[in-house]
Amino acid sequence: MKEKPGKDRFWGGLCAIGIIALAFLMNFHTVGNNDMFWHLKAGQIIFETHQVPHQDLFSFTVPGREWIDAQWLFQLVIYLLYRVSGFAGVIIMASLLSALTWFLILAPALNPRKYFSLSLLALVSLQAASARFIHRPELLTCFFLALELFLIHKYRRGKKTALYFLPALLLFWVNSHGLWPLYFVILGAFLAEEIVAVLNLRIPGMAQRSSPVPARASAIRITLILLGSLSVTLLNPYGLRGALFPISLFTEISSANAASLSITDLQSPLSSDFPWFERLPFIALLVFSTLIVLLLLRKRRANLTALLLWTSFLYLALTAERNTALLAMIVAGPLAGALAEANDNGIFPLPALSRRLKGLRPLGAGLVLLAMALIGADLVTSRFYVQNRAFTRFGIGALESDYPIRAAETLKAVAAASGAPAPLKIFSDFNSGYLIWAGYPEWKVYFDPRLELYGEEMIRNYFRASTDWRFFEEQDRKYDFDAVVITPEQFVKNLIVHLYRDPGWALVHLDGFSVVFVKDKPALRPGIGQYRIDFREGFASRLPAGLSGPGLARERRTRGMVIFALGAPEAALAELKAGLVLDPENISMNYYAGLALSMMRRYQEAIPYLDQVAARDPEDIPNRNEQAWAYFATGRTGDAIAIYRQVLEKHPQEITTCMNLALVYENSGSGLANPQWQICKQIYDSAPATYRAFYPGIEQGLERTGKAKP
Questions:
Q1: Is residue 582 part of a domain?
Q2: Closest by alpha carbon to 87, among 25, 24, 40?
Q3: Gap between the terminal Cα atoms of the chain
Q4: Which of 387, 417, 441 is a domain's end point?
Q5: Do 208 and 342 belong together in one domain?
Q6: Do 408 and 371 belong together in one domain?
Q7: Dihedral, 126, 129, 131, 135 alpha carbons, nearest 10
Q8: 541-568: per-residue pLDDT in tens?
Q9: Do 386 and 30 meet the contact criterion of CB atoms below 8 Å apart?
Q10: I need a labelling partner for 13 at 20 to 30 A (CA). Which of 93, 119, 273, 458 fits?
Q11: What is the pLDDT, as a whole number, of residue 402?
């Protein structure tokens, strides 16, 4: 078939432009990470003091501890942008940087004759990297990595001066993000290929070196650049300690400690911590890239550098989800470049079929462009972020629904109403970055995302204090907290309930992102009296400005679930019903709405909500228990018994279901009540420590039905 280079260049260029445009759009969204705010505060401090911090400034738990701020240059840059143009400047800069990064990645691999396969590979890679399009220092790591690969590519194509820009690149990298050791991984992979060429080694599956630069001279130059670059690592505000910091950080994260186990993106992307639909892009990237490597090895067209980089970054990606974007860049760059250089028709199996399919490349490119257009539409309408569970929004700004913005406003209002804007010591969680931004230097936090600063013991203390009320009280006696600002996640539910019941604390704020308690101290009592929440008097909390659809439904759901946990079912029901108007099929909201109605003994009203959950998730045992009890309370005893029996057939050790069924038998006058209580006794006897809390109920049930105590 006759080649049409002009047509091929058109389609290939169009696909490349589409990828670069998507890279821009994927980062053009509201601030998507709480770390941005403490980075901004650090940048402000650096700008105003003309010094990079060497000691902790933000906490009251480790004040003065050595802090190696490896991202100080990134922080200064984003603060200067924020100072001039607010979040708009930061977001536009991030979007432009993403587009430039992917231009640098794609440019060396462009091949008009293979535009379809390369464009498809680039789109798969971009989709896999999309979860990391957030406003964090790693954005600069991606850019520097792409620029290093681009400069080395230019050097190997004959532009010798390109190599001499690398130490300057490293200088910026060392002072922007702790992943700068990747610079040496990349340079080392290229040096390995040159050494193999100098030694004239033959490695099975490897293609011949194709650079016009003599291998010996190239190996010497790269070695000198590499050795010179080692001294560049010392050019940071912390000297040798700053140069060694990434090694200690990598060692700490690699171990199975509290830090690595507490952060989701430090888990493998194949981990069950991620829903299956979030694992799909990585699996697709893994499958596509592995097939390409195998094809290249089979036809002896593999590039040693590309293979080394792919293997190294695949290992990094498999150990931590946050490294997926780096692997995607290697796949779309060096690995795609190796594919582009393999120009012989025999690279793919069935070469005759492959030649026939070349005529369908425009159709394939059209499908790739259509996929890009659909993704672009999802981005512009914000559906893309909802599907990724990011809940950011296309455009600029910071959403009140994603940060403790309203919580900080309430804390300031409480202090102002008390006439005591004194320093506050705040028990905080991972989302404390905004509190640092809003309240420093008056506010200091118990904990924040700088895990390397706090150390293993302090991280464990945070988790223990969040889940163990007695330990929280010990920490309170040690540090004398003034306020608690936490995100109402499941693992802190007990802490929230205990604080609400403790007369020494006052609930002053509750929204879909934060719960705020203030300690009942004399200096703060006037503000507490004005802002204390009493659900008996009704509940109202300002909704986030401009929020609608799934984001507003999430806000209502979280508020409703927290209010229910605090024992105010009527106020919870109002929130949940408002959320169900926006998302009527949401399982959590339907369940808690049914639960709230059951608590108020409005069983007939509860049944439709519980039925909805059962229809969507028949294996939800707590819902099935509530559904059956609502049936029994409304006279549908037979239906209730049938549900309990179904659950016990699949889960015979479900002691709550067993006891509920015994109560139904007992209250309906059935002779099966006593045998059912005996079955519950057997479950208890099988693991007394596990079922200790159920002992009194079983004992009383057996007494009522005339049998011996368990």
A1: no
A2: 40
A3: 86
A4: 387
A5: yes
A6: no
A7: -100
A8: 888 887 788 888 999 999 999 999 999 9
A9: no
A10: 93
A11: 86
- Judge if 416 and 376 occupy the same domain: no
Cβ partners under 8 Å of residue 367, min gap 6: none
For residue 388, which phi and psi values (nearest 5 degrees)?
Answer: -85, 5
Q: Report the C-alpha gap between 593 and 463 in whole angstroms.
A: 30
The amino acid sitting at 572 is A
Is residue 510 in some structural domain?
A: yes
96 and 216 housed in the same domain: yes
- The reply to whether the predicted model has a pTM over 0.70 is yes
Cα 287 to its chain centre, rounded Å, is 23
What are the residue ranges in the chain where pLDDT is below 70?
1-5, 112, 252-263, 343-360, 387-391, 420-421, 707-710
DSSP letter, residue 273: T
**Element (H or E) spanning 507, and its range?**
strand 505-510
Dmax over CA atoms of the chain, in Å, equals 96
Q: What is the pLDDT of residue 347?
A: 53
Instruction: Kindly state whether residue 614 falls inside one of the protein's structural domains.
Output: no
Residue 658 lies inside a defined structural domain of this protein: yes
Residue partners of 284: CB distance under 8 A and separation at least 6: 124, 127, 128
Buried b (16+ CB within 10 A) or exposed e, 27-37: bbbbbbbbbbb
Domain shared by 423 and 495, yes or no: yes
Indicate the SS3 state at residue 445.
strand
What is the β-pairing status of strands 443-445 and 505-510? unpaired
- Judging by DSSP bridges, how do beta strands 424-427 and 443-445 pair with one another? parallel
Return the bridge partners of 517, or none.
484, 507
Pairing mode of beta strands 483-486, 515-519? antiparallel
Whether residues 379 and 504 share a domain: the answer is: no
Boundary (domain end) residue, out of 387, 419, 449: 387
Residues 354 and 433 in one domain: no
Distance separating alpha carbons of residues 353 and 441, to the nearest angstrom: 69
Q: Do residues 335 and 468 both lie within one domain? A: no
CB burial of 89-118 (b: ≥16 within 10 Å; e: otherwise) equals bbbbbbbebbbbbbbbbbbbbbbbbbbbbb
* Domain extent for 178: 5-387
